[in-house]
Amino acid sequence: MSRLIKVGGAQLGPIQRDESKSSAVSRMVALLDQAHAEGCGFVVFPELALTTFFPRHYIENSDEFRAFYEQEMPNPDVKPLFEKAAEYGIGFYLGYAEVAREDDETRYFNTSILVDQTGKIVGKYRKVHLPGHAEYDPERTFQHLEKYYFEPGDVGFPVWRTMDGIFGMCLCNDRRWPETYRVMGLQGVEFVALGYNTPATNSQKPEEGPEERLFHSDLSVQAGAYQNATFVAAIAKAGVEDGNHLIGGSIIVHPSGQIMARAETEDDELIVAECDLDDTVFYKKTIFDFARHRRPEHYGRIVDQTGVILPE
Amino acid sequence: MSRLIKVGGAQLGPIQRDESKSSAVSRMVALLDQAHAEGCGFVVFPELALTTFFPRHYIENSDEFRAFYEQEMPNPDVKPLFEKAAEYGIGFYLGYAEVAREDDETRYFNTSILVDQTGKIVGKYRKVHLPGHAEYDPERTFQHLEKYYFEPGDVGFPVWRTMDGIFGMCLCNDRRWPETYRVMGLQGVEFVALGYNTPATNSQKPEEGPEERLFHSDLSVQAGAYQNATFVAAIAKAGVEDGNHLIGGSIIVHPSGQIMARAETEDDELIVAECDLDDTVFYKKTIFDFARHRRPEHYGRIVDQTGVILPE
């Protein structure tokens, strides 16, 4: 048996603060053209793929930062992407900043959507693990204000049956948390799409540079794939954006944990891997047969406590 | 600040089925001598370090397999190890098969102990994630009967304050399960000791050989270390034992996830790394500050279900 789907990882180079959303979308459409030429059935775009990674900027006035967010999806700016993808019969994952009016409140999320091969939005995810900080921090070499611009996602980690498989989503820092993959693994996930924007140095430890940052990114993604027997496509926005360097290193990872494709540039670049979703089956039935091997009676702390409780 | 401890990883070559426990112990004492000469304060020995990896053999009669187990610890066979370690002021971790009389039942566990620098047993762990199968399986190229010889551990994943740090333990297959490290990470663990015996080919997929098996071992250990900001020493029994090849590749891993030392042989071999337990602090206070970043309200499935529940 095989359930083949050729997957494109559409890494984006930097989107400078003054670049328009329609310009970013036209770059994505160009990558989609290339994915179509290569026979892809699914394409993964980065996190916050329509704008600069604005959480590096501290903007006090919400009227000023509101333009970074999308009220509706699709909307006129992204319509060309939806139309071209449907024309090609390519499903896709797209990250963007979402502003929603819910329960009489204005709510801001770091969001991604899963679009099937007919252009229909079949799933929406809101980033659970927001890194960084909620207030301007003069101690850092640069800001990472995700906890200021967004609230934590409120929908958990659902999965969706689509494109002849079981698909899940997460965003950026989520990939460092094994709980992310495990919650989806417990729903039988076969393909996890994730976009990221990751500074090439650690704002609190400048000597931690791009090589170490890429190592941590790969390690987390590969372990999540292997330990849950799922494909993972981790796709970056990369390069020097508003003067800040973001790592590239987009990868598509096999359920064995092995890297199938890797971006070589920090620009717009399509990586491609032929993924047989049935390659997940062997591990799911043997070493990672959760029903036979997991022991939740000993995992209570994972849910019962948030932070560390030191021993006496 | 620094809390330095030089750690020795005492990989063992094969222990054939007819080798006596006192012979195995004398090999361990020789590694301890070497560790003392190198200035180690803590030494990690493998899983089931006193005998061959007997779960590869199907033995019907419990009187026959009983000799592989220890009723008491320490006991005359291992006394030379305890005495020499105390003389040197070296703490250690040791894996062995345990038979216990509890609640009027004879119980068998795959166990490890943590011994402090005075020779006192400060902690006992019983392997939670038993791999393999409970009955003879003619489909496999070789047997892996851990579920036949042992029952799953009943003490969870405790940690202990000892040797100026917070130490935890696990065994072999536990290292592939992120829950193992996370439960200890939530107790502030700074050093995880783990021993393993890992066949060099997959008994259900013979084309998965030692290179891939080492990759999976490294990946799981490095991710567990990084994502919980802890040192991990993963130490093998290696080489061709009773005609079956076990991988070596013992490693000591830094809280950054980077490998500090790696065994190069499949024989008795000491690897050494100088570990500063304060290297755990930076990550525990920043990217993996669990109290600030974890979101247990979305992790419920990890505890609420054992096996996969597929979406509709």
From TrEMBL, chains A, B:
<dbReference type="InterPro" id="IPR036526">
    <property type="entry name" value="C-N_Hydrolase_sf"/>
</dbReference>
<dbReference type="InterPro" id="IPR050345">
    <property type="entry name" value="Aliph_Amidase/BUP"/>
</dbReference>
<protein>
    <submittedName>
        <fullName>N-carbamoyl-D-amino acid hydrolase</fullName>
        <ecNumber>3.5.1.77</ecNumber>
    </submittedName>
</protein>
<feature type="domain" description="CN hydrolase">
    <location>
        <begin position="5"/>
        <end position="277"/>
    </location>
</feature>
<dbReference type="InterPro" id="IPR003010">
    <property type="entry name" value="C-N_Hydrolase"/>
</dbReference>
<keyword id="KW-0378">Hydrolase</keyword>
<dbReference type="GO" id="GO:0047417">
    <property type="term" value="F:N-carbamoyl-D-amino acid hydrolase activity"/>
</dbReference>
<keyword id="KW-0614">Plasmid</keyword>
<dbReference type="Pfam" id="PF00795">
    <property type="entry name" value="CN_hydrolase"/>
</dbReference>
